[in-house]
């Protein structure tokens, strides 16, 4: 007989044992288990993991390397002291006469002050002459090294050249650190000297050669190579002993004491004598900390934030696409974990922790590579100055922050893939099915709204700026101005966010439109529309890179064109201009010297521009030529009257209209082409020969000198003209009218009205030389220009002339090529990553296509169209977004200003290359790379 027994209600020992053996439910054990699973999952998908680590490591390498380079440029207190003193103990320099109130700063010895009257600013104490030799204040038998500076002229293979000279025993071993001994021997006599590497190159000399100084007259044998540690290797300096001739031209003097330095009380006594002292021990008593200028610190923080933000944004997008592919390949494993009871939160943390692990790995690798790359970068950037870098300083606190930032970036990159991976149906995931992607109806609306808001923000900001600048007293720090500026900057960012939000919708539109162009196109665009989690982040990353390039190209080209318009041309491009100035400008000797100096450069043509001196040059109390007591000025037409209350913008007073601008200049007919840079038309030359004037197309001037084919000249008393700039003019002394014709020139030149020498004599225009211009088929050598500058700068040689090579404004083309190359590399990298992920995820599809007879050409064509869609969409959107802020900026500028930026200068061919050329290059490259041989596997079901 059997019985049914009641089940025991108490706990058994076996149950207690089972409960004790169950996993701990605390947070830390669970987290450790999830970390272990995440580490194993990243190792199983090593390819995708290495990609994510590389994506994180590259920007972290740049950030850490840049931080090390910056920190190595910040001197410690010991570095600063060694740079000032070398191995010496103190440095003395008279800065004032004896004054009991003089004190120097303990923080900065070169900052000093004396007591001054609060009302007048004059010194309270009697002003005395500085001490000639402060070494007399030192204890007896104190060793002193006196060093000074001068400017000398030396004989060079190309003629003569100016060199900096350090006078005194700068080669003394106690000054090592302030001066750097490179090679050779130290001078032992008064006829021996040393030279810097730059000076040796300039003189075409080497150790053992003799250098000849022409000013002052001296010769020295070069015994070694020495340089100022604070100057570059290219600086041209000679180090010479203190001979009588060199001491006579010495400009500054400094005294170093190798074995003595003052106490704090002694320093006060030196200050009272008008001497400041840089003392080693007193300086090192300060707290040893690097001082960073607040402006530099802010610029560094801003640049770091921008680079970190942009690179983090790109990494999140591209690594997010990689995580999206990786999590889909983990779909079955995650479904198995879910089927045995793993909660959704645990699965999500598992994927997030994969991003954390890979972010940590990328941060550590990037920081290590950045530190390793910083040293060769410092060597490459070293120009010989001690400030190039003071030492190899690694900011460990900064590297820790960079690694933490990398962890955050990796975690954020895995956020959306983790959310998507845990939202699917477990049974479908277990059998390998994938849900078709559905387009949310609200996404296109929100995206279009954000796109419209982005464009509207930039336009509104530009219009507000235009209104503020048009006001009588614009306040550039006012809240409306700041808000308008931020609107211009934020507009394209909102625009790109809108493109991302509407990305899937844009892909579906492209798929519908492009499906009609053949099988390869249809398969490519439909694959893109079916995988927005992979495609949208990728083209958003490309759009961000192209946005920066588009804005930079537009900004460089537009600002370069504006700079070219506002450049103050002294003559035609490639010419050498010698200007005559000062009280000697009417001297025939000065005129002959100016022409001779220019002809020494062997020009192909020489032209002389003659005219009257400016009024303030001949209005002194000394005797002047009778004919220079009056001046001729052309009348200007076409400008608004400043006295009219309705006038807004540029205007002129009645006196300004009658005064016009500068007086006419006289140029010989055969020299016009040299001065203008172009040959005037024959019709203009006929007017010129018949006593008329040429009016240059000067974009600087407002209004015009021409009125019914003629110009009106008024004769004024010189003093009246000078007073007329500020007050009402009296009646002119006379008036005459000349026929005139306008002549266009390649550039806006500093003259507006040109007459022939015969016409100048007929109308009484003084014809003193003002400018001499030399034209060349090939630009003169730099040594020739240096010698010309030197002849103009040596006192007593040519005190009334100065020279200049007119090279024109810098061309923007090198910067445009650099920007295009840099963004091309970024787009190539981002596109390669996205297209590589696409090929990995399409392997089952490739196998299916091959199984049903697809040819390799068809598969290549699919790859080509995938690249066109991905890179093309990102490039077009990025280019448009980059033009928007420049459009907003130019809206806020006064286009009547000659130097204002204008959208007419937008580099459309360069932008077309960015929007169209880069996608085509990427598509061809993707077509040339053959598809991987497919593995014939089953086709994954789509539920």
How far the N terminus sits from the C terminus, by CA atoms, comes to 57 Å
Largest sheet: 10 strands, mixed
Estimate the global geometry from the Cα principal axes.
Answer: globular
CA radius of gyration is 39 Å
Low-confidence stretches: 12-24, 615-628, 795-799
Report the count of strand segments: 24
Describe the structure.
With 943 residues, this protein is an alpha+beta fold. Among the domains are: 144-257, no CATH class; 503-567 and 812-943, no CATH class; 569-805, no CATH class. The chain has 30 helices and 24 strands. A ten-stranded mixed β-sheet has the order 15-20-21-19-22-18-14-23-13-24, with helices on both faces. A hairpin with a 2-residue loop joins strand 4 and strand 5 (159-168). The radius of gyration is 39 Å and the shape is globular. The two termini are 57 Å apart. The model is unreliable at 12-24, 615-628 and 795-799 (pLDDT under 50).
Task: Give me the secondary-structure topology.
Elements lengths: L12 H9 L5 H18 L1 H27 L4 H9 L4 E5 L8 E2 L7 E2 L31 E12 L2 E10 L10 E6 L7 E4 L1 H7 L6 E6 L1 E12 L8 E4 L3 H5 L3 E6 L6 H9 L2 E5 H5 L9 H36 L1 H9 L4 H38 L14 H18 L1 H7 L4 H5 L11 H29 L8 H23 L1 H12 L4 H12 L1 H35 L9 E5 L7 H12 L5 E7 L18 E5 L5 E2 L9 E2 L1 H6 L5 E2 L5 H5 L5 H8 L3 E4 L13 E8 H7 L9 E10 L9 E3 L1 H7 L4 E8 L6 H12 L7 E5 L7 H29 L1 H9 L4 H36 L16 H21 L15
Parallel strand pairs: 5-10, 7-9, 16-17, 18-22, 19-21
Antiparallel strand pairs: 1-11, 1-12, 2-3, 4-5, 4-8, 4-11, 6-9, 7-10, 8-9, 13-23, 13-24, 14-18, 14-23, 15-20, 19-22, 20-21
Helix pairs in contact: 2-11, 3-9, 3-11, 3-12, 9-12, 9-13, 9-19, 9-27, 11-12, 11-13, 15-16, 15-29, 16-29, 17-18, 18-29, 19-27, 19-29, 19-30, 27-29, 27-30, 29-30
Keywords: Cell membrane, Membrane, Transmembrane, Transmembrane helix
Pfam families: FtsX, MacB_PCD
Main location: membrane
């Amino acid at each position: 007989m059997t019985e049914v027994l009641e089940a025991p209600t108490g706990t058994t020992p076996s149950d207690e044992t089972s409960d004790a053996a169950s996993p701990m439910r605390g947070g830390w054990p669970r987290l450790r288990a999830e970390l272990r699973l995440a580490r194993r999952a990243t190792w199983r998908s090593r390819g995708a993991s290495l990609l994510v680590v590389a994506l994180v490591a590259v920007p972290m390498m740049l950030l850490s390397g840049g931080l090390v380079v910056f920190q190595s440029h910040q001197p410690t207190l010991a570095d600063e002291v060694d740079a000032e003193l070398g191995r010496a103990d103190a440095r003395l320099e008279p800065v004032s006469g004896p004054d009991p109130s003089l004190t120097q700063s303990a923080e900065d010895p070169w900052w000093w002050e004396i007591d001054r009257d609060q009302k007048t600013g004059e010194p309270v104490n009697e002003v005395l002459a500085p001490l000639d030799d402060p070494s007399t204040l030192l204890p007896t038998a104190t060793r002193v090294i006196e060093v000074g500076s001068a400017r000398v002229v030396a004989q060079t293979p190309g003629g003569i050249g100016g060199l900096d000279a350090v006078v005194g025993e700068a080669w003394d071993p106690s000054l090592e650190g302030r001066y750097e001994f490179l090679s050779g021997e130290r001078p032992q006599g008064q006829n021996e000297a040393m030279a810097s590497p730059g000076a040796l190159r300039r003189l075409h000399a080497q150790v053992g050669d003799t250098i000849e100084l022409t000013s002052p007259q001296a010769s020295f044998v070069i015994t070694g190579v020495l340089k100022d540690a604070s100057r570059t290797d290219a600086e041209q300096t000679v180090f010479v002993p203190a001979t009588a001739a060199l001491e006579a031209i010495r400009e500054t003097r400094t005294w170093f004491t190798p074995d003595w330095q003052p106490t704090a009380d002694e320093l006060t006594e030196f200050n009272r004598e008008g001497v400041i002292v840089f003392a080693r021990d007193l300086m090192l008593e300060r707290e040893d900390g690097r001082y960073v200028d607040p402006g530099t610190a802010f610029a560094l923080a801003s640049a770091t934030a921008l680079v970190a933000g942009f690179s983090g944004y790109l990494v999140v997008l591209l690594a997010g696409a990689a995580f999206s592919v990786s999590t889909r390949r983990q779909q079955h494993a995650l479904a198995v974990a879910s089927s045995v009871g793993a909660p959704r939160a645990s699965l999500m943390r598992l994927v997030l922790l994969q991003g954390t692990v890979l972010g940590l790995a990328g941060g550590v690798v990037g920081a290590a590579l950045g530190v390793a790359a910083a040293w060769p970068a410092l060597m490459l950037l070293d120009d010989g100055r001690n400030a190039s870098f003071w030492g190899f300083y690694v900011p460990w606190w900064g590297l820790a922050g960079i690694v933490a930032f990398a962890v955050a970036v990796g975690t954020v990159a895995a956020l959306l893939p983790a959310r998507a991976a845990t939202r699917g149906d477990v049974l479908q995931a277990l059998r390998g099915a994938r849900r078709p992607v559905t387009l949310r109806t609200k996404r296109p609306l929100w995206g279009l709204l954000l796109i419209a808001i982005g464009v509207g923000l930039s336009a509104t900001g530009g219009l507000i700026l235009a209104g503020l600048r048009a006001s009588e007293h614009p306040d550039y720090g006012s809240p409306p101005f700041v808000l308008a500026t931020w609107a211009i900057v934020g507009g394209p960012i909102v625009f790109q966010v809108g493109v991302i939000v509407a990305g899937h919708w844009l892909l579906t539109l492209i798929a519908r439109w492009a499906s009609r162009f053949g099988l390869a196109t249809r398969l490519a665009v439909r694959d893109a529309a079916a995988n927005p989690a992979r495609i949208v982040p990728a083209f958003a990353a490309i759009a961000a890179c192209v946005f920066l390039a588009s804005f930079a190209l537009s900004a460089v080209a537009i600002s370069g064109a504006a700079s070219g318009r506002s450049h103050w041309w002294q003559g035609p491009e490639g010419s050498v201009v010698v200007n005559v100035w000062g009280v000697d400008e009417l001297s025939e000797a000065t005129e002959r010297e100016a022409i001779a100096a220019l002809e020494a450069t062997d020009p192909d043509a020489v032209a002389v521009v003659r005219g009257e001196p400016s009024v303030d040059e001949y209005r002194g109390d000394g005797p002047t030529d009778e004919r220079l007591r009056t001046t001729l000025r052309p009348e200007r037409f076409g400008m608004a009257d400043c006295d009219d209350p309705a006038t807004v913008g540029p205007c002129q007073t009645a006196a300004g209209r009658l005064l016009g601008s500068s007086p006419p200049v006289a140029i010989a007919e055969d020299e016009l082409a040299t001065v203008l840079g172009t040959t005037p038309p024959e019709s203009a030359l006929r007017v010129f020969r018949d006593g008329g004037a040429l009016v240059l197309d000067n974009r600087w001037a407002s209004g015009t000198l021409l009125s019914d084919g003629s110009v009106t000249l008024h004769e004024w008393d010189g003093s009246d003209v000078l007073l007329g700039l500020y007050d009402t003019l009296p009646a002119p002394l006379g008036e005459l009218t000349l026929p005139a014709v306008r002549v266009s020139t390649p550039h806006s030149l500093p003259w507006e009205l040109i007459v022939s020498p015969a016409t100048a004599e007929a109308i009484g225009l003084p014809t003193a030389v003002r400018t001499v211009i030399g034209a060349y088929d090939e630009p003169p050598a730099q040594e020739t220009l240096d010698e010309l500058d030197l002849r103009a700068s040596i006192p007593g040689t040519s005190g009334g002339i100065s020279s200049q090579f007119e090279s024109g404004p810098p061309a923007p083309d090198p910067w445009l090529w650099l920007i295009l190359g840099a963004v091309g590399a970024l787009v190539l990298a981002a596109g390669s990553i996205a297209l590589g992920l696409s090929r990995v995820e399409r392997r089952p599809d490739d196998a299916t296509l091959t199984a049903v007879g697809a040819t390799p050409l068809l598969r290549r064509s699919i790859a080509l169209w995938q690249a066109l869609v991905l890179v093309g969409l990102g490039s077009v959107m990025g280019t448009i977004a980059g033009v928007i802020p420049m459009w907003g900026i130019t809206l806020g500028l006064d286009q009547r200003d000659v130097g204002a930026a204008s959208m007419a200068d937008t580099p459309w061919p360069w932008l077309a290359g960015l929007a169209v050329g880069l996608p085509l290059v990427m598509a061809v490259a993707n077509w040339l790379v053959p598809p991987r041989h497919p593995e014939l596997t089953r086709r994954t079901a789509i539920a």
